[in-house]
Amino acid sequence: MKKKRKKKFPYIPVLTVALAAIGCSALLGHTVSGAQSSESAQVSGSGRASVTASSSTGGTIEKNVYIGPVNVGGMTMEEAKEAVDAYIQEVEEGTTTLEGTIGSQKVSNSDLGITIDAADALKQAADVGKCGNLVSRYKQVSDCANSREVFEPDVQVDMDKASTVFKMYQDQLVQAPVDYGLKRDNGTFTVTGGTPGTEVDASGTAQTIQDYYASASGDASGDVTVATKDAQPQGSKEELSKVTDVLGTYSTNYSSSTAGRKANIARATELLNGTVVYPGDMVSVYAITGPLTAENGYELAGAYENGTTVQDYGGGICQVSSTLYNAVLYSELEVDERNNHSMIVSYVEPSRDAAIAGGVLDFKFSNNTDAPIYIEGTADGSTVTYTIYGQDTREAGRTIDFQSVITGTEDAPDTTTYITDDNLALGTIQLSQQPHQGTTAELWKYVYENGIQVSKQQINSSVYKPAGTVYSVGTKSDDADAVATVKAAVKTQDADTINQAVQQVLYGN
Fold first, then answer.
1. What is the Cα gyration radius of the chain?
2. What are phi and psi of 215, to 5 degrees?
């Protein structure tokens, strides 16, 4: 008779199952609390690692763990936070190079509105190998020993800001479509353009930027290939065929202007002439004519700045915007932004002006008609004229007029101010500004039907500051000591002191 053998139980699998049921907070009857309470299972051999149960607030982060491109392995939570915060600051203060199909453009990350939040990623990194059951924790640590464990921070791009940047540099990045346009020669319009192209896909490019700075391959300042999509040209021959009527026109005289001012009026008019504006689109005069620099074809001429007249590139462009403003008023287009000058100008009546100051003041208007409009500008050295063409749907017999009404005045102060001018030859004293009377004014619109007034509407109001006489004192010279002498004299604002300094540097008296 055979001896009956005892049955053996598979205790190892049972132990494994039991351990698998134990979570992050307890192991084999031991409670984990902070960095001091832990239970370890050591596994030796190549590619093996130790498993430690501890809270995510204590100890160090497992090796080979990354927050985006930042290696936080072996760091405490405080150290990891400092490292990640440093990366975030570098990114938010850094630049991104947008790589397009025909060119590239480096832009500020602040202009793109890039922000990064790594709080959740840091928590996840700290929990690696410290939460879950023993088996899952061992697997987490083992995986880290063999490859990177990357936790991506939350990267956001401000779509409003980014879209503005993409649109600004689109022509430098991709082969944009050529919109249908118009050319006017000898009183006849010819349709131009109409070529398909591509445009920057704003949402796709923003997502690419977010993915780049969140990934392990990211850098504080990176290169990102823009996403693109097919784009069709705006307009059509049928639409542009509607442009036949004069909606409004206006002229001002600049025959007494300096050569530099005349050149600036001609340059700005050259840039504006031929602009086609489709229904609903808005025109920014500064966006078309700027920047006001020598590189963009402008010369030095008188311009208002802080209540005085100074020499600046583009001086005289405000006569262009003011002339166009009046043509826009007679065309009855929608005015989106208009600002009066700080002081009265001579080429239009009060409240008929529209000031331009780079990046600060602009003249903007929109095409509120159902057809495209065409802007024609001419400048012949004495008269600048703007005429706006479109489809006139106003009723026959309806006419409009505008009247400037002065509502108050203030005498010009009996003062004389001296300013230095680095573009004027050393020792030259030149009258830069006549006294200006302070003025308040309004512009009113009158509508007539068959000669009978049917409405009256206030269009704007303006406040012009009074100002005294201003002289410019030239400080253009390679003689640093002479320049310093004249500038010191100008600071005194005393005419005798200034004249003595000029005599000294010019004649040694």
1. 36
2. -85, 165
Helix, strand, or coil here: 166? helix
Determine which helix (DSSP H) or strand (DSSP E) holds 425, and give its type and residue range: strand 416-425
Q: What is the DSSP letter of 3?
A: P
CB 466 within 8 A of CB 433: no
Domain enclosing residue 345, as ranges: 242-394
> Cα(482)–Cα(502) distance, rounded to whole angstroms?
9
Domain boundary among 204, 236, 268: 236
User: Do the domain assignments include residue 61?
Assistant: yes
Indicate whether 261 belongs to any domain: yes
Specify whether 277 is located in the same domain as 174. no
**Does residue 282 belong to any structural domain of this protein?**
yes
Cβ atoms of 177 and 267 within 8 Å: the answer is no
Question: What is the tens place of the pLDDT at every residue in 218-275?
Answer: 787 889 999 999 999 999 999 999 999 999 999 999 999 989 999 999 999 999 999 9
pLDDT in tens, 7-35: 444 443 444 444 444 444 333 333 233 33
Q: Are residues 348 and 295 located together in one domain of the fold?
A: yes
Identity (one letter) of the amino acid at 16?
Answer: T
Domain count, the chain: 3
Count CA atoms closer than 13 A to 63's CA, side-chain side: 8
> Among positive and negative, which fits the CA dihedral 206, 211, 214, 218?
negative
Same domain as 294, residue 213: no
CA angle in degrees (0–180, nearest 5) for 206-86-71: 85
227 shares a domain with 342: no
- Write the CB contacts of 9 (distance below 8 Å, at least 6 apart in sequence): none
pLDDT in tens, 273-306: 999 999 999 999 999 999 999 999 999 888 887 7
Residue 57, pLDDT above cutoff 70: no
Query: What is the distance between the alpha carbons of residues 487 and 502, in angstroms, rounded to a whole number?
Result: 10
Q: Which helix (H) or strand (E) holds 150?
A: strand 149-151
What pLDDT score was predicted for residue 345?
93
> pLDDT category, 58, cuts 50, 70, 90?
low
Which of helix, strand or coil describes residue 503? Answer: helix
**SS3 at position 287:** helix
Rounded Cα–Cα distance for residues 396 and 407 (Å): 34
Domain-embedded: residue 399: no
Other CB atoms within a 10 A radius of the CB of residue 100 amount to 21
Q: Name 48's Cβ contacts closer than 8 Å, sequence gap at least 6.
A: 142, 145
- This prediction has a pTM of 0.69
